[in-house]
Amino acid sequence: MAENLRDAQVQDQATFEPDLNVPVSFGNDDAALRAAKGGVALCDRSHWGRIQVLDSDRLSFLHNQSTNDFNSLKPGQGCDTIFVTSTARPIDLATAYVMEEEILVLISPTRREKIMTWLDRYIFFGDKVKLEDVTDQTAMFSLMGSESKALLETLGIAGIFDQPYATHKEYKLADQNVRIAVGSGLTLPGYTLIVGIEGAAALWQALRQAGAIPFGDRVWERLRIEQGRPAPDRELTEDYNAVEACLWQAISINKGCYIGQETIARLDTYKGVKQQIWGIHLNGAIDPGTIITLEDDKVGVLTSLTETEQGAFGLGYIRTKAGGAGLKVKVGNREGEVVEVPFLKRDRAVDTVSAG
């Protein structure tokens, strides 16, 4: 059935890379970027992992294994959460949707197997928890842009709009059972749609016929960097902790004990954040991994880079004492200016289960 979706995307001029099972581009990157920001755009994120957590202990299990407060969630609600090591090193930033009989957890593409293994090792004798990887049985799309609500309304969808982040509900769309959730995966307005793989092509075609402009993984990566969403193997590594990654929207400080909680509480109490992620406007491209300097002193490292209409733009960790937005730095032989990015939350405002 996945072949039917691929066939539909090929008709939309999709190109693929051998090691990526979703489109890299539709040959319309500039138009798709405009649509994602000011119209309505459609991205296939089916290569992201989807893990079902089942049985009666599912809420308390995820509550104890990740950073957000699951015990306060009801069916139809959801949250972003971080899987971290005992020293609060981020493994992945995930999104979870709580349903009546299960929790569906969305995982970054490179962390699907790792998170399954990680969670399985913490299921002990007597725990009523079951895990099932349903990635290959489902498809997932992001509908993104200021007109995404209007598009869904033309398809008969109602009741999900203007709800909190990660609110979700099942609908009939294109004669398929489709779970629609608030949030596009970035801070751009939009929705996440999950459907059984047998109905993926029909849903894709219905969204396209309604006016959504398709875009591939290349545009997603650019938007990710522009927005500041940290990614595994880039910003989420063993070199940094979850607080340094500026993901307070996915962290509950008051929910009690969980893996990594002591480190996060200590960092919060003593304001011990030594470095943070920032956006950096650059006057030319340079490789991620390049050292960031201020007056010849090393203050950080570049972690991601993309090209925009305004030139090269990157993400990088910069020492807190060096400064933040407005700081002029050098990245290798390039000049850069540090700027804020919308995805990140640097300060803990209130204890919350929502994000976005």
Tags for this model:
356 residues; alpha+beta; six-stranded mixed beta sheet; 17 strands; 21% helix; disordered C terminus
Biggest sheet record: 6 strands, mixed
Mean pLDDT: 95
- Give the neighbour order of strands across the main sheet: 8-9-10-7-1-11
Indicate the overall shape.
globular
The number of helical segments is 8
H and E order: HHEEHEEEHEEHEEEHEHHEEEEEE
Poorly predicted regions are: 351-356
From the structure provided, what is the oligomeric state, counting identical versus distinct chains? single chain
Number of beta strands: 17
Radius of gyration: 20 Å
Query: How big a fraction of the residues is strand?
Result: 25-35%
Distance between the termini: 32 Å
Helix content range: 10-25%
Structural class: alpha+beta
